[in-house]
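Reply to dn_fold:

You asked what the input looked like. This is it:
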Amino acid sequence: MTDETPRKVDPAYPSGGGGLGVGHDAAIGTLGAAASFIVPLSGPVVQALLKKCVQAPLEVRRAAWFNLVGEGLRELQDRFEGFDPDRLAENEEFVSTVAETTRIAMATHRTEKLEALRNVVLNVAAGVHLDDVLHGAFLGYVDRFSGLHLKVLKMLSDPAAVPALAARAENLMTGSLGVLFEAALPELGSNNTLLARVVADLSQERLTNGATLNAMMTGSGLLEKRTSEFGDSFLKFITSPVA
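and this is what came back:
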């Protein structure tokens, strides 16, 4: 753009306009135009399908996301004396965070990720400040990681607080983290390959203190904290400030 005048962003429409934003409208328009060019007679049908199968579900998803954030902001207002949500529109860091998290939220239906994104917004609204490098890294993890990554990391931060892990460890003289997680995550069955990938990803980003699935240790040893200080900071940033 040639106009360098800063454009104020409405938190409810991070793209800068109504609907789903300019990018979304352009994408829908391009798809519709291409389809009409290939099959001229079915243009209106294609447009109707796009509106029903693409645009409408995304609008529902966006509305649900903003409702989730709005409920959290109201909770902050109820819990913290002096918190004024009306001033958030003047907070550029908050507005940028809403825009960034909304982009990620629109691309997922996973509850763990949506909760993490909501909590990022609430932490920034509550005054938590990270430098740009750390802020970007943490948002990148939420974007790239699956809900299982987030769930496993939280478990590793305090295994003894997870009833299924604690109960399994209590009956073991020796065992491995893999055995514990089989009890805590029955939906995985015996898919150790998938779990190993998750733990390796977390370790590669230095979010854990070298957690491994197959190392044998005592039951009490299995319940020791395995997240790094860096991992704890990430978890704090994606945890609700009113939790």
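Residues 1-24, 26-41 have pLDDT under 50 and may be disordered.
Hope that clears it up.
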